[in-house]
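Each lists sequence, tokenised fold; shown next:
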Amino acid sequence: MKNIIIGFAIAATTLAACNNSNNNTADSKNDTAIATQQQVIKDTATTQSTTATSEATFPAEEIIKGYLQLKNALAKDNGKDAATAGNVIIATLATVDMKSLSAEQMKSYMALADDIKEHAEHIGENAGKIEHQREHFIMLSKDMADFVKAFGNGGQTLYKDFCPMANDNKGAIWISEVKEIKNPYLGSKMPDCGTVKETIK
């Protein structure tokens, strides 16, 4: 009888140990699953944060906005406001975080940034010389057309316009946010000279 009781005690202890082991294994699996899930959430949040930062860091929309302000100032024969807008472009370029660009964007940006900055500087430094500003605006507009092609239109419909009389009758393009022609090269002399060559959506 004593042996039977001892046998039951051993069996009960073994069973309890097995159950405890199973519980520990289940708890371990649950802990692993929770940790994995938390890591996935953390990684997703990091990716989303990085993407949002990249989009927010590169100021394509602000650069385009500065250019359009410049264009509108020249269309109104206002060299002072054109100079201010040129300086806004320069200041915006200084905020660009190169790390936010992909390899392809970096290549496009490096090909354009120095020229955009140079022409914006000339315009910014020559508030009283509107014809000189317009000469640089011809080249700046070519660069901005390439910029929009590489980095998008800043969330708005843009128009590539062309004036055949600008640039000593060689013709020149500019980018506009309105379909109506407002010529930045001829200003009040011939404000509606030109045509829309392309709609950029």
